[in-house]
Amino acid sequence: MKLKIEREVILAPLAGYTHSAFRRLCRRLGADRVYSELMNATGIIFRGEEKELAYFTDEERPIHLQLYGRNPEEIAQAAVKMVEKYRPEAIDINFGCSVKKVLKAKAAGYLLQFPEEMGRIVKETVEALKPYGVPVTAKIRLGFYEDTLEEIAENLLKAGVSAIALHPRLAKEGFSGHARWERIRDLKKIAGDVPVIGSGDVRSWREIDVKFEETGCNGVMIGRAALSNPWIFKEYKEKRDIRTGLKERVEFILEELSLMWEFFERERACKVIKAQISQIFKGIRGKAKLNDMVMRSKSCEELLSNLREVSNFGN
Ligand SMILES: Cc1cc2nc3c(=O)[nH]c(=O)nc-3n(C[C@H](O)[C@H](O)[C@H](O)COP(=O)(O)O)c2cc1C
């Protein structure tokens, strides 16, 4: 199935951060497309575990719901369930994550060692979603211990993948070293008319056009940089630096929190948002003290009152 992606700036999936509320705010700031964080296929089929992870609103579309798993049949079955229930624009399969839990399950990034198995998973899912007209995309790294991008790409393309997002590091590298964007250019050459999305280390809006020009890719993903500066999408769209102070950042958090309460239980949302708070205070003078004040909050009420107090410290 064809998926049209042309010069899009996309919010990368970031487990623990890119829930519906953060995605909506990034879409409002100019992100062209979003991905959910990874969800376990077995959990979805047998335990209905996706719950708030799969929650999204129309405002977030186009959205890719991301799955990971070990077994092609299970992933395909979970994909059908998600499509019937939520109707996303695409199902994405994660082949990049290499945290202990998923490696133990021999899923996600672990599968980079077995390109043919990756192909089987995509093929099975493509077949299962054909009746629904929903495309299947994949998010990959260069390989696990060694760079086997060509072999991986060949298997995914043969299986009918509709777009490939590449974070050009090895799984064993984690986040060390740097993303090798020249491999995005190589993938683009192999992929023909299947869109290629590059992901990794883009810190400022000024780098985005450079990535498009240098690699010919169809999309640039912004991950960690969006956590500390979600305005990066607006900066790119308006081609100008946007300076935000403490007040704007606290307002962003308060808005995010109020959107989170739609799908997270109130106190849980207040716990989850703390990770985002410590990111968004980056670069603000007195960050450590502000962070400390906010992190100490023991309840939602205390968090809200501390945030309001912090925001009065001025810009
Ligand atoms: C905290 C965190 C969580 C992540 N969660 C996911 C995930 O759920 N699915 C996925 O495909 N990639 C995930 N990634 C990888 C990112 O999508 C992205 O490819 C990577 O961070 C490189 O881009 P960046 O330098 O712009 O952050 C995660 C990365 C981080 C730092």
UniProtKB/TrEMBL annotation:
This enzyme's EC code(s): 1.3.1.-
Residue span(s) of domain DUS-like FMN-binding: 10-308
Lyase is among the record's keywords: no
Example GO molecular function: tRNA dihydrouridine synthase activity
Catalytic activity annotation: a 5,6-dihydrouridine in tRNA + NADP(+) = a uridine in tRNA + NADPH + H(+); a 5,6-dihydrouridine in tRNA + NAD(+) = a uridine in tRNA + NADH + H(+)
InterPro entries tied to this protein: Aldolase_TIM, DUS-like_FMN-bd, DUS_fam, tRNA-dHydroUridine_Synthase_C, tRNA_hU_synthase_CS
Keyword Transcription regulation: no
Residues annotated as the enzyme's active site: C97 (proton donor)
UniProt keyword annotations, A-Z: Flavoprotein, FMN, NADP, Nucleotide-binding, Oxidoreductase, RNA-binding, tRNA processing, tRNA-binding
Cofactor field: FMN
SUPFAM superfamilies: FMN-linked oxidoreductases
Functional summary from the UniProt entry: Catalyzes the synthesis of 5,6-dihydrouridine (D), a modified base found in the D-loop of most tRNAs, via the reduction of the C5-C6 double bond in target uridines.
PANTHER family listed in its UniProt record: TRNA-DIHYDROURIDINE(47) SYNTHASE [NAD(P)(+)]-LIKE
Name of the protein this chain belongs to: tRNA-dihydrouridine synthase
